[in-house]
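thought: user wants a sequence for this fold. calling inverse folding tool.
action: design(structure=
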């Protein structure tokens, strides 16, 4: 059955001026691309890129430092669509703030989905570096919610 759906998606893509289609069937995600994206570049910008390549050694040192810092960061993503709540009740203290130290299993927020309040627990130990969603905002599946610094 899913092969028939895939054939339909390919047929739609071939008979339209759309370059890419992404379809989700239950827990499967199908992405079909007709042609790779075309990048228009001016000759002036290409010559600037060659001058940047000449200075690569100094850039690589910074990249290594940045990748070490990024390697210690963990992004908490939403396991479901719904409404984000930072506290258990309106007007009360939020579960976490920027700079809060958390342990694995600590409740860090609540997501309301279909009138059910789902407590979201931390998957790692660390410190909250960023809160990416405001209280009461709707969220999507797999949307980033928090950034945790796990370097400690």
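)
observation: tool returned 152 residues.
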């Amino acid at each position: 059955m899913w092969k028939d759906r895939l054939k339909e998606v390919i047929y739609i893509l071939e008979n339209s001026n759309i370059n890419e289609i992404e379809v989700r069937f239950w827990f499967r995600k199908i992405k079909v691309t007709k042609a790779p994206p075309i990048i228009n570049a001016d000759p002036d910008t290409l010559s600037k890129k060659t001058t940047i390549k000449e200075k690569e050694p100094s850039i690589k040192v910074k990249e290594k430092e940045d990748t070490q810092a990024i390697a210690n960061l963990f992004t908490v993503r939403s396991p479901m669509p719904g409404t984000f709540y930072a506290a258990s009740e309106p007007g009360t203290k939020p579960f976490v703030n920027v700079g809060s130290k958390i342990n694995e299993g600590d409740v860090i927020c609540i997501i309301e989905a279909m009138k059910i309040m789902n407590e979201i627990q931390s998957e790692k130990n660390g410190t909250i570096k960023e809160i990416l969603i405001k209280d009461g905002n709707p969220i999507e599946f797999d949307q980033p919610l928090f950034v945790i610094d796990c370097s400690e």
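thought: summarizing for user.
answer: Here is the designed sequence. The chain is about 25% helix and 35% strand.
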